[in-house]
Design a protein that fits this description.
The protein is of the alpha/beta class. Helices cover 52% and strands 14% of the residues. It has 15 helices and 8 strands. β1, α1 and β2 form a beta-alpha-beta unit. α4 packs parallel to α5, α6 packs across α12 and α7 packs antiparallel against α8. The radius of gyration is 19 Å and the shape is globular. The protein binds iron/sulfur cluster. The site of iron/sulfur cluster has 10 residues, from α4.
Length: 323
């Protein structure tokens, strides 16, 4: 069965049950994204709801997804209504929660509940965690090739890390392609750029942001949330793994991860990306207040290329960094 999901959650359980996890966001953004949005609006989804929600709704309805796991605490309040509309159309939904309090017992209970739902032994889940951690270690190498050796572009880093949310449904194939990529990337000449950037926030819906930053002689060497999807902490225990994953918790948990990474990666400035109509836009206030770096906010709405206004804002920001 294909198990769709709305944001990263313990996919080890799905693999242990012999099913295929599918990150609905990835199918949406790499597929016929604008058609998916139009189709959701045709069904009655409002104009002023985030594009990712509309995209996930259409992917769940219009592709071969069998069941949807909705992360109803720790991600997006819109997910509640997304789940309701899918359930109303007869699609089986399974709720999963990351407790906002980061309470270990509550998270353990959620994981156990999911194991019971999929009828898997905890030992089988741990076996899958070990299998996936082997690939996650290689993604750490890829990340180091990005910020230490400057041999992997920001876009390549983004693509590999964002796809590690579900390993494209086939970890063996993912690992094979990753091995090939790494063996080619190590032979490259290091890139040189005028400024080193961090990109904070959800993965951008803008298709040419990385390309444009490169054109402007800027290198993105930190993709914050995409890196979180790759579970880089390699904790011994699956509960600790999903407690170290910062995205579902508060902005202060994210900042505890972001601050040392900015320093370690020798960052000059930060792009704080947010999605139109997303509650996370409010967190940008705290990001700006707590980071001692120049921060430019960038907002995306529909899938597509950067608009002229945002390009102009980026150029002005770069001028400001120069003087
Ligand atoms: S971008 Fe924001 S509003 Fe959209 S799905 Fe993600 S958390 Fe929800």
């Amino acid at each position: 069965m294909k198990i769709g999901f709305t944001t990263s959650f313990p996919i080890e359980i799905v693999y242990a049950a012999g099913h295929i996890p599918v990150d609905l966001n990835n199918v949406f953004v790499t597929g016929r994204a604008n058609d998916f949005i139009e189709s959701a609006e045709f069904q009655g989804y409002p104009r002023n709801i985030c594009s990712w929600i509309k995209g996930m709704y259409s992917v769940a309805r219009e592709t071969d997804i069998d069941v949807v796991v909705g992360v109803v605490e720790g991600d997006c309040s819109n997910t509640h209504s997304l789940m309701a509309t899918l359930a109303d159309e007869g699609i089986e939904i399974i709720p999963f929660s990351f407790p906002f309090s980061k309470d270990r017992t509550l998270l353990e209970r959620e994981i156990t509940k999911l194991e019971k739902h999929f009828e898997v032994e905890h030992s089988a889940v741990i076996k899958w965690k070990k299998r996936l951690d082997k690939i996650r270690k290689k993604l750490i190498t890829l990340d180091e090739l990005t910020y230490k050796e400057n041999k992997v572009t920001g876009f390549e880093n983004h693509l590999w890390l964002v796809n590690s949310s579900d390993f494209n449904g086939d970890p063996d194939d993912f690992e094979r392609r990753l091995d090939q990529f790494l063996s080619e990337a190590v032979t490259r000449e290091p890139q040189k750029a005028e400024f080193r950037f961090a990109l904070l926030g959800v993965p951008p819906i803008i298709t040419d942001l990385y390309e444009y930053m490169e054109e402007m002689n800027c290198q993105i060497v930190f993709n914050e949330v995409q890196r979180q999807f790759s579970m880089p902490h390699l904790e011994e225990n699956i509960i600790d793994q999903y407690l170290s994953y910062t995205y579902p918790y508060s902005i202060f948990d994210r900042l505890n991860d972001i601050k040392p990474e900015l320093e370690k990666r020798n960052i000059d400035a930060v792009l704080s990306y947010s999605q139109s109509f997303c509650h996370l836009q409010i967190d940008t206030m705290i990001i700006k207040k707590h980071l001692d770096y120049p921060v430019l906010t960038v907002e995306g709405d529909q899938p597509g290329k950067l608009d002229a206004r945002t390009k102009l804002r980026i150029e002005s920001f770069l001028d400001m960094l120069r003087y």
